[in-house]
Amino acid sequence: DDTFSVYMSPLLADLIEGAIKQVEHPKHVGQSIISVAEGQGGWRRRVKPLYLNSGAYSFTAFGGVPAMELRFHEEGHVYPFVNTQLDSVLRLQERVQGRVCVVGRAVAELVGLMVLRLAHDHIVALDITHYSATALKLSALLTQLSAELQVRGLSPQWVYTARGDYSRAAKTLQEAIKNTDIQDERMTRLYNTRLMR
């Protein structure tokens, strides 16, 4: 339970970052999760895309709802009993050296803080510009593979066009939100609807 990892939709990066700054690490008393993660090379290094057999993946893939999966784990140590008949509270308690309650509390605090922010803030806390950076990385990779793609009769041009369109739309929406009165319920509802699409 030493290392914190998160599998998530990139839209949730700012939301999780705000929460891990406020929650104490379950193994390192007196230190926040983010301070321990920074000492391990940075928390964003621990962010991974949702994997196909993740319980959270179906929410994102089929419902379009940004989702995440949180983990505390020991680097290089796999808990071998997940999804088996041998999985029990006692085995888990043994694996985390009696800290199941402490780890559970840290996860509950993280989730609670994120839910509070999603429910309380006038504008849904989604980082819509994050996909622009992801699309830029994909564009760079496709540029490197351009010759190979052309041999196969494929063109990455549509990715470049889509990235530009998305980036402009995200920046325009972000500017519109920044320049509006967030007390105006009709406008915040409109912007939240656009963010979720």
TrEMBL record:
GO CC terms in record: external side of plasma membrane
Stated name of the protein: Transferrin receptor protein 2-like
InterPro entries on file: Peptidase_M28B (IPR039373), TFR-like_dimer_dom_sf (IPR036757)
Species of provenance: Clarias magur
Keyword vocabulary terms for this entry: Receptor
Gene3D superfamilies, per the entry: Transferrin receptor-like, dimerisation domain (1.20.930.40), Zn peptidases (3.40.630.10)
Domain of life assignment: Eukaryota
A Gene Ontology biological process term: endocytic iron import into cell
